[in-house]
Design brief:
- By secondary structure, the chain is of the alpha+beta class.
- The protein folds into 2 domains: 218 residues, no CATH class; 167 residues, no CATH class.
- It is 27% helix and 25% strand.
Length: 534
């Protein structure tokens, strides 16, 4: 068994509730401004247009103080990456550490984290700022670094905690090594520069904050914000009836013939604390849908933070009343050298589905039916015929949200563990040799019910260059569930047109396609809530 939890210290000082609110907004605004810098200076459409990145501020122990409203699956796991960086690094002013190792707090290899320390008249850091961005390629066996892999070694370059910036100087040898192992080095270099600039923004704003209020007060209110988030989370759990609630759902497959991979949770609520036990989930599998423990923690944080109706900061305090139990070597706590590219994007969604399914038995009025349950990952790479340069495109595609006890589900949006945007057609066609032939709402795919689930999306792309296409998707066999008589949402479909023939593909595939071929993705709808007759 593995137990994951967080703790932080407080300083003896009288709490001023007005200052608490001031600091809550100051810390959050620092994270938000870091995100603005990253998004505006990035090179790749995935970061620049879709905002597939996250920024946050951490205390001297590596516990998260505040985050921007970015990607849930990044932010719940990033503290473990920061702690890994703290463990392996002797810091000096001007340093920054890069890492992406999923077994050291990462999620999957394309998500690269850069951590920077905040110094103030001390020999050790007093705070840290960090950001994580999804790079469209980090090497590996297929373009886009989201392959149908059997081992993490096939998925790309594994970066342990290393100093990418030392005393203000970029390590050009390390950067050259990384860029030599990716397909689109110029784009990667631009995105790394954007991440470094985002951290520099965070460092400047943290220095301004400490200069204005003093280090002791800033640290005190950072700890107080975590205590406040803990109190509000405890109050939310206290309203859930005591009891044991179980639920299970299944991954369609792992891409290599292993189907119906079980994810099970048993939630025990006692007073103002909750225990989530995932130990009865299936063993890790051959394919890349394995999730590391950091992803499971992210899903738990996301769900319980969503239940809190008060506007609280999302930080390490939210997890203090919650114990997460896993069994190493399972689909929700994979061990090295498991392939994990799809665990971050697909299995995280199913973990959320099972947690919400269990809680629907305790607080049915607060829990929605299942959302689309997938991120519909598509990666396409090849050589641009106009320039002769390599290109690597990556995107996740939205779908339908599940209905609630009060409302229909939203259509054509990203749900749960992703909070990205859809790439505009104009930006997509400008950046890549593609022609978007259809981009529409997939009408009628939301589950029927008293309140109807949201509809999915249709995106059809004609390739203008010979390309390697990889798709990792779910809910192609098992539909998103409805609740309390509501009907399930429609399953998704993946279709390839090549050589004059249309082929229905599975949820996970990698195929070479020729110029003029077509990829069509129809994403799932959300589940309905309540019997349709109502």
């Amino acid at each position: 068994m593995a137990t994951c939890f967080y703790r932080c210290k407080t300083v003896d000082m009288k709490l001023n509730p007005i200052l608490l609110e001031v600091f809550k907004n100051r810390f959050s605004s620092i994270s938000e401004e870091m995100g603005v810098t990253l998004g505006r200076t990035a090179f790749s459409p995935n970061i620049k247009e879709r905002h597939d990145f996250s920024c946050a501020v951490f205390d001297r122990n590596g516990d998260m103080i505040a985050q921007a409203a970015h990607i849930p699956v990044h932010l719940g796991s990033m503290p473990l990456s920061v702690k890994a960086a703290l463990k392996d690094t002797r810091w000096a002013p001007g340093d920054m550490v890069i890492l992406n190792d999923p077994f050291k707090g990462g999620t999957h290899l394309p998500d690269i984290t850069i951590v920077a320390p905040v110094f103030h008249k001390e020999s050790t850091p007093c705070f840290y700022v960090a950001n994580r961005a999804h790079h469209a390629d980090v090497g590996g066996m297929s373009s886009g670094s989201m392959p149908l892999a059997r081992s993490i070694f096939q998925e790309g370059l594994i970066i342990p905690p290393l100093k990418i910036v030392e005393r203000g100087e970029i390590d050009k040898k390390l950067l050259a090594f990384v860029l030599n192992n990716v397909r689109t080095s110029a784009e990667r270099e631009g995105d790394f520069a954007a991440q470094i600039m985002a951290n520099l923004t965070g460092l400047k704003r943290m220095e301004d904050l400490i200069t204005k209020y003093g280090l002791e007060m800033v640290e005190f209110y950072a700890a107080a914000l975590m205590d406040y988030a803990e109190r509000m989370t405890r109050a939310t759990i206290q309203k859930i009836p005591d009891g044991i609630y179980e639920f299970e759902d299944f991954m369609d497959d792992d891409g290599f013939g292993n189907q119906d991979v079980r994810i099970h949770v048993q939630i025990t609520v006692r007073g103002d604390e909750a225990e989530l036990d995932f130990s009865n989930s299936d063993p890790q599998v051959e394919g890349s849908i394995n999730a590391v423990c950091a992803i499971t923690l992210s899903a738990v944080l996301y769900v319980f933070r969503s239940l809190v109706e008060t506007d609280i900061p999302t930080n390490g305090g939210c997890l203090r009343p919650i114990e997460v139990i896993t069994r190493p070597g399972t689909i929700v706590d994979a061990v090295f050298p498991a392939s994990v590219a799809g665990g971050n994007v697909e299995t995280s969604q199913r973990i959320v589905d099972v947690i919400l399914g269990a809680l629907s038995k305790a607080v049915p009025e607060k829990i929605p039916a299942a959302h689309q349950g997938t991120m519909n990952n598509v990666a396409i790479g090849g050589l641009d015929p106009e320039t002769g340069d390599p290109f690597a495109y990556y995107e996740t595609i939205g779908g339908g949200m599940g209905a609630t006890a009060q409302h229909d589900g939203e259509s054509a949006v990203h749900c749960h563990m992703t909070n990205t945007l859809n790439t505009p057609v104009e930006a997509l066609e400008y950046a890549y040799p593609f022609l978007v032939t259809e981009y529409s709402i997939r009408r009628g795919t939301g589950g029927r019910g008293k309140f109807r689930g949201g509809d999915g999306i249709v995106r059809e792309i004609k390739l203008l260059a010979d390309s390697e296409v990889t798709v990792l998707s779910e809910r192609r066999r098992r539909p998103p569930y409805g609740l309390f008589g509501g009907e399930p949402g429609a399953v998704g479909k993946n279709i390839v047109a090549s050589g004059g023939k249309r082929r229905k593909m599975g949820g996970k595939f990698s195929v070479p396609l020729r110029k003029g071929d077509m990829l069509r993705m129809e994403t799932p709808g959300g589940g309905g809530y309540g019997a349709p007759a109502q």
